[in-house]
Structure formats: C-alpha cells, structure tokens
Amino acid sequence: MPAPRFLQLADVAEVLNISANQVYALVRRGDIPAVKIGGRGQWRVEATELEKYIERLYTETKQFIDTHPFGEEAEQDAQL
C-alpha cells in the first residue's frame, strides 16, 4: 500500500519527534506548508512538503555549522 499523500499533524509530530502543538505552531508560522480540509478545518501536511521542510533544516544546519565551526578548545572538550 502506498504512503498517504497527506499527513495529520499528529503524524508529522511523530516523524519529527516533537509534539503536535509544536507542529501546529510550525504550520501557523508558515514553516511547514499545510492545508485546512473539511468543514471542521482539519490541518493536513502533504508528505512531499514535510520532506522539503526536513531538507531545508539540513541545509540550514549545514550553513550554521559552516559559519560557526568548533575551535580547538571546543573540539578538545568534545573528545573528553
């Protein structure tokens, strides 16, 4: 059976290992694109959008690491 196209916020929370409230905040801020579906307006995140979000986080993290490298002291501390 193929993976579902749309995920509930609880499913996204499970993938990211964060709370559903944190996912809701990410959606409301526009960090993770989502749609409201149905009369009750339930949020859904497209699986491809979640993967794009994760890739953005990897890129941002790499950029952070590249611009904030460990100094020798930090590397020595990490080895202890």
From TrEMBL:
<dbReference type="InterPro" id="IPR041657">
    <property type="entry name" value="HTH_17"/>
</dbReference>
<protein>
    <submittedName>
        <fullName>Helix-turn-helix domain-containing protein</fullName>
    </submittedName>
</protein>
<feature type="domain" description="Helix-turn-helix">
    <location>
        <begin position="7"/>
        <end position="56"/>
    </location>
</feature>
<dbReference type="InterPro" id="IPR010093">
    <property type="entry name" value="SinI_DNA-bd"/>
</dbReference>
<dbReference type="Pfam" id="PF12728">
    <property type="entry name" value="HTH_17"/>
</dbReference>
<dbReference type="InterPro" id="IPR009061">
    <property type="entry name" value="DNA-bd_dom_put_sf"/>
</dbReference>
